[in-house]
Design a protein that fits this description.
Elements: H1 2-121, E1 127-134, E2 137-138, E3 145-149, E4 154-159, E5 163-171, E6 174-177, E7 181-182, H2 189-204, E8 207-211, E9 214-218, E10 224-230, E11 239-247, E12 253-255, E13 263-266, E14 271-275, E15 280-288, E16 293-301, H3 312-325, E17 328-332, E18 335-339, E19 345-351
Amino acid sequence: MPKKKAAQTTKQSNASNKSTKTDKSTKKTVKKQDKATTKSLENSTNKTTEKNNKTTSKEQKKQTRNWATILVLILIFNLGVLFYAIHTNIMLQEQYAQLAKQVVSDKKEEVSNAYENMNKSNPLAKTSWRLIELGDKQLEKNQLVSLNFENNVAFSGFNSCNNYSGTYALNGEKIEFGEVAETMMACIPENMALAQEFNKALENTKSYMIQDGYLTLYDNDGNKTAVFIAFDDKTLSGTSWEVTAINNGNSGVVSTASDTYVSLMFKDDGTVKGSAGCNDYSGSYTYDPENLTIEIGPLASTKKYCATPENMMAQEQNFLMALQKAKTYKIQIGKLELRDENGSLQIAAKLALE
């Protein structure tokens, strides 16, 4: 009995050992399988990750290309908008410039037409007059009072003592002279009194009439305040002048010496004559009243020598030279200007009434 049990125990022990070995083998196998599975899973995961990474990279590149394309399109669009805006702005500026020119042209034409119409309705504009009667008194020949209507609103002139200016308003045959501003020269009592009377006459004037080359001013009761005769600003023949300034030949114009008298007379027969200060002179002249051009000379003069006043002979020589250089003339408000072909003043003179 004991031997059988021992044998059985031995068998059981062997079986147990075999089982243990089997378990170990199984564990080893399981471990190997686990390792293989883990490695396989890792490989698979790595492959999947790499694949996903590649896919992500491709998508990112694709997205980058898409964004780049979008940005390029946006840039092209903005450039197109900018170009269109610049082109439109240039076109608008050209249109505005043309419109502005047209507006200015239209405005100039409108003003010109309005001014022309005003001139047509204002017979006084751009006319010059010489006073011959003040109230009921006739003026002396050596008394010069002038009235010049420069345009539709301004007037000026010489009141026998001072230059004056002001504004006026016209309404049909009604006229109102504004306040007169004048220079402050001192004159002989007779001329100063005449100037005051004339200024008062303008102040009292309320209406006017132009007839047969005469301008008559009236007060509120219809009484004459002044009578003028038209100044002819084109005709030279038959006029006499006292020279007040002479070109000295050095691009300067100087007043005549205070104690000298230089005269200029344009005769109807085409001759010019007068006193050069010391000697008398004479010659021929022609003029064109439409273009206001003139030719004077040749001139001849007497041969006297004047020692006084000082520089008398130099002034006389300058006068005769300046007179023959004259190419154009201008008459305005009893004053005469002779200029050369370059427009330089050669002779200035005032109307001689003696």
